[in-house]
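#struct-help
A.M.: can someone run this one for me? Single chain, 305 residues.
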Amino acid sequence: MPLRLPDRLPAIDLLKRENIFVMSTTRAHHQDIRPLRIVILNLMPLKITTETDLIRLLSNTPLQIDISFMKLKSHTPKNTPVEHMMMFYRDFSSMREEKFDGMIITGAPVEAMPFEEVTYWEEMVDIFQWARTHVTSTLYICWAAQAGLYYYYNIPKYALPQKMFGIFPQSILEPLLPIFRGFDETFMMPHSRHSEIRRDDILANDALQLIAEGDTCGPSIIMARGGREFFITGHLEYAPNTLDTEYRRDRDQRPDVLLPRNYYRDDNPEQPPIVTWRAHANLFYSNWINYYVYQETPYDISAIQ
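D.P.: on it. C-alpha cells below:
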C-alpha cells in the first residue's frame, strides 16, 4: 500500500524514481480505507531532505499512511523556501484539536543551548504535553530525544569534548521487544551530535527502559510508556550522503573537523560511504508502524488518549 502525501510535495518525484509507491491526496480520496495518520514535526534546517528521508522509511509497510507536516509558530526556518512551508506545513496551533496514530519529532541545530533558552522551547513544551493525549506513539530523534527526556523525565544532557560523528555499532539490550523483531544482535546507527545523555541517568529512572546502546556512542534507543515513546539519540533516517554533506560543510568552515568514523571506504573522503545501516533502519520503522502504531491505535482515532 502507498504513502498518502500532499499533492506536489517534492519528495513524491524523488521517491518514485526509487520505485517507492506514493499516492497524492487527490487519488487517495477514492479509496475507502482508514489510513494511519502520522504527523512529522520537522525541526531540521534542510526540511525537504528530512521529509524525503523519513518518507522513504515510512513507505516500507503494507498500510496506507496519511502524512502531515507540523511547524512551529514561534520559529521561522531560514533554509527552506517560505512557499514550501506555506504549502505543505501547518502550525501546531491549527492542529491542536486533531489526533494522530503516530508522530515523529526530528532533531534541531540547537544542541549547545540550554533547553529553556531555545527560542521555541515554550511551544515545544506545549507540543510535548499535547502528544501525551493526542498521539498513540511518538518517535523523538536526536535533539528532540534529549529534549523529551529532559522535559518528561528530568534527564540532563552533557556537552561532549568533540562531536559524536559517524556510524557506530549498537547492541540490543531487549531482543524480545517487537521493535527489534528481525534484527541482528548488533546494528549500525549514524550519529551526529555535540551532546549526550548518560546511561546511569537512564537506568536510575524506573519509567525508562534502555533498549539499545553503543560502546562508543552510549545510549541510543530508550523506550517509555510501553512503546508510546521512543527516544533515539542517532539518525537511522539518514540517507547515504548525509554525513558526507555535513563533513564537507563543516570542513569548509574550519580546519579541525574530524572525519565521520566507520563511514568512508578506507577512511578516505574521496571514496564513497559504506552504507551499513539502511536495512535495520527500514526494519525499525516498519516494526514501529506495525507493532506500536497500527496494532495499538484505536480504529476510532478520536478515542486516542
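A.M.: thanks! Confidence is low (pLDDT under 50) at residues 27-32.
D.P.: also worth noting: The first helix runs from residue 10 to 16.
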